[in-house]
């Protein structure tokens, strides 16, 4: 048997109270990341030694008991622990020269995101269950397959909330065979060229939306920083980019299906 990893992304429809809780928890996650990064830097500068994930986990327990940081106890423990694990992974990638040095996270530019290794489950076609929050409305457009190994709840630039499940699916370890093999060549003038000579022109969704995008970006540039109008203009630009991304994804799936069929 072989394991196939597949992600399932669903749109969430949280209530205003649930949105407030998610935003608060995301702020706690950023706070723990910045606190742990500061502790690592201070420890290395003072002693030349590194703090491990286990040491930071024990320090996090003590941090929750302090009066000034008692607000961390309102957040579920899993996102905070995952924040420490993400920081450990970031340093591992840095020392392996696969990524840059980890930076402090800012509230203004860091998107709201929470990761749960367990506990988030699909209840029915319209509901999921989140630990310490309860049931939350969602659009489950297709059922999960395999075993859910974790879930990430995040907010897009448009303001919409999404949940992404990572599932492990067991498949029989059989060799893949093709009855009708197809040769495909990708290019600029033609998106794909098949071995039969059939060509497919690129869709150019971005160029079709350039005028609308430029108009929205000019409004964003003229809006005063920190104002409500600027926040609205930023979301308008994000929605246009999201629509272009959705159009590309939809076209790619349909084009690949046409080739397979």
From TrEMBL:
Domain named Transposase putative helix-turn-helix: residues: 1-48
InterPro entries membership: Transposase (IPR001959), Transposase_put_HTH (IPR021027)
Top-rank taxon: Bacteria
Domain Probable transposase IS891/IS1136/IS1341: 166-261
Signal peptide annotation: none
Protein known as: IS200/IS605 family transposase ISDge10
Origin species: Herpetosiphon gulosus
């Amino acid at each position: 048997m072989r394991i196939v990893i597949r992600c399932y992304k669903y749109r969430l429809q949280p209530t205003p109270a649930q949105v407030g809780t998610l935003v608060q928890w995301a702020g706690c996650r950023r706070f723990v990341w910045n606190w742990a990064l500061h502790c690592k830097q201070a420890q290395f500068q003072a002693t030349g030694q590194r703090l491990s994930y286990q040491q930071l986990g024990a320090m996090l327990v003590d941090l929750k008991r302090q009066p000034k940081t008692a607000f961390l106890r309102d957040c579920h423990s899993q996102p905070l622990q995952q924040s420490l694990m993400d920081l450990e992974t970031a340093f591992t990638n840095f020392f392996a020269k696969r990524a840059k040095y980890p930076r402090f996270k800012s509230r203004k530019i860091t998107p709201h995101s929470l990761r749960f290794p367990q506990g988030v489950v699909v209840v029915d076609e319209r509901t999921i269950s989140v630990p310490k929050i309860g049931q939350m409305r969602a659009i489950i457009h297709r059922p999960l397959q395999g075993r859910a190994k974790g879930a990430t709840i995040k907010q897009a630039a448009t303001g919409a909330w999404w949940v992404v499940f990572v599932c492990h699916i067991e498949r029989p370890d059989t060799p893949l065979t093709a009855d009708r093999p197809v040769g495909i060549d990708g290019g600029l003038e033609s998106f794909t060229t098949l071995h039969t000579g059939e060509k497919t022109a690129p869709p150019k969704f971005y160029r079709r939306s350039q005028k609308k995008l430029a108009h929205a970006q000019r409004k964003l540039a003229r809006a005063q920083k920190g104002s409500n109008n600027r926040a609205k203009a930023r979301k308008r630009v994000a929605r246009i980019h999201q629509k272009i991304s959705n159009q590309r994804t939809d076209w790619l799936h349909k084009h690949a299906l046409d080739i397979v069929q």
